[in-house]
Amino acid sequence: MAFLRNTWYVAARSGEVGRQCLARKILGEPVMLYRTAAGQPVALLDRCPHRLLPLSMGTLQGDAIECGYHGLTFDSTGQCIRAPGQERVPLGTAVRVYPVAEHMGMVWIWPGDPALADRSKLFDQLPQWANARGPNPQWALLEGPLTYVKSNYLLLSENLVDPAHVVYVHKRSLGSPAMANIPIETSQQGDTLLVSRWTPNAPASPILQRYGKWAGNVDRWQYYWMYPPHIAVVDFGAGLPGMDRSNAGRDAAIRLFTAHFMTPETATTTHYFWFVLRNFALGDRAVASDLIEQVTMTFMEDKAILEAIEDAEVEPFVTSRVKLAVDAGSVRLRHTVEQMISEEEALRTSGRTRAAVT
Ligand SMILES: [Fe+2]
Asked: What is the Å distance from ligand 1's center to 40 Cα?
């Protein structure tokens, strides 16, 4: 399977990367991550070019990694600096180094052409997470547990441009029957997709009712932003019927954002990093632990569905699929990702890059 390479993917939570080696497969490639003594994250191909032992089985010597088999040692730029038993290191001995960046409490990796790695291309579409002065005090952050999903990452991305599944998959949390027949709106600007639904004057879904405690009906919104191929932000919440639908109006109601970062491990498995932001009960620990439990339960419902679909996709029993009106977001997503990957491939083979022409 082809992956988009010239983009930043989340490799790890910042707290996972320290003064010991972390081995993680990303886009099918074995990667090892660690931090220099000064705190800079480093990502190297997790293979010693001598006998191919994973370097993550070696030991850090200062900022360098010493292979656990014969002691060949590489610095944080991937250059070999020591070959025990001989005076000079064999000419050109190096291990691949990946560009990395630390951003939003996560370590990001650029698996594509290192010359194109650019911090300005890091995901920066969520002012509720932080503004130029640091963490946004109007919003409380909860990090979800590291989640491993045995499905292709695009099944996850597809799930995140799909407000329609909520009614059926998340009956206990996000769904409510009133949403089922409200049309879904889909739009696209550049590569970015927006799939949304506004459900007026209906009972709140179970999660929102826990915190809103409304006496009657509410207006309920779902805005699914997708930054293909692998990042999604869901803006959802509820307020009194007839509420102001603008950004300021939603801020004045019970509002949550979930942010989702899908990093392919292989073509059939995904490292799934996510967090939640809320604008209510900011310092309330009981609400925080209840909310993370509720959202985790919700995402585990998605995980079970997507893993079952991944298994079914390799079976020969059904060879054609029915298309529904609710698939508009998924169709656009798949098409956009295919286009991004084929553009990257075409430009790579012609010696130019997508970045160079945009
Ligand atoms: Fe879901």
From this structure: 35
